[in-house]
């Protein structure tokens, strides 16, 4: 089995789209070096994912340090970032209250519930919040980045897409969890 040195270099060509770079094998460069990781955004929209997003999600999933996480795309730096962390004692109402009425967001929510058999369970919801009143450009950027971002968060069990609060009411969440 071949082994390549582990280091990152800037992309050798700006003609390749970020989505193509993720499928390329290590590329030989002058001097016996190999390009094994391009430091470019990894979604069709060109939006990257901040490492903090993945780390905080792992804390939510494994350690249950948070009830929810709200993510925002920072268009200035072209990156998904953590906007708000919900403490374990915060409720679903606290979560929905922190979503802006006129702006898109991604969020994950750790939903605890009791089954009909009286078993305590938990499911992690991924919520794509895209209100009708948000800007069209924002809706397009969030929609084109969603699948790639969601793949970074390993352990999502249920996905909801909501354009108004009624589409993510507690009744909807309970219905999707069971």
UniProtKB/TrEMBL annotation:
Q: What range(s) does the ADF-H domain occupy?
A: 46-178
InterPro entries cross-referenced by the UniProt entry: ADF-H, ADF-H/Gelsolin-like_dom_sf, ADF/Cofilin
Task: Name its GO BP terms in alphabetical order.
Answer: actin filament depolymerization
GO cellular component, as recorded: actin cytoskeleton
Gene3D superfamilies per the record? Severin
CDD domains, A to Z: ADF_cofilin_like (cd11286)
Q: Which PANTHER family does the entry mention?
A: COFILIN-RELATED
| Function of the protein | Actin-depolymerizing protein. Severs actin filaments (F-actin) and binds to actin monomers.
UniProt-recorded name of the protein: Actin-depolymerizing factor
The organism encoding this protein is: Elaeis guineensis var. tenera (Oil palm)
Taxonomically, what lineage is the organism? Eukaryota, Viridiplantae, Streptophyta, Embryophyta, Tracheophyta
Q: Which gene encodes it?
A: LOC105036538
């Amino acid at each position: 089995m071949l082994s390549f040195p582990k280091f990152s270099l800037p992309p050798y060509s700006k003609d390749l789209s970020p989505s193509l770079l993720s499928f390329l094998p290590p590329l030989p460069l002058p001097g016996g070096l190999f390009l094994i990781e391009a430091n470019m955004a990894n979604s069709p929209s060109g939006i990257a994912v901040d490492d903090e997003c993945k780390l905080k999600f792992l804390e939510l999933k494994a350690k249950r340090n948070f009830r929810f996480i709200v993510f925002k795309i920072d268009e200035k730096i072209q990156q998904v970032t953590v906007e708000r962390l919900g403490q374990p004692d915060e409720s679903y109402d606290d979560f929905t209250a922190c979503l802006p009425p006129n702006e898109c967001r991604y969020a994950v929510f750790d939903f605890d519930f009791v089954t009909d058999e009286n078993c305590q369970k938990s499911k992690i919801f991924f919520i794509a919040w895209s209100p009708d009143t948000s800007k069209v450009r924002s809706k397009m950027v969030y929609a084109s980045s969603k699948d790639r971002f969601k793949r970074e968060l390993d352990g999502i069990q249920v996905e909801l897409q909501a354009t108004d609060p009624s589409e993510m009411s507690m009744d909807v969440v309970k219905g999707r969890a069971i």
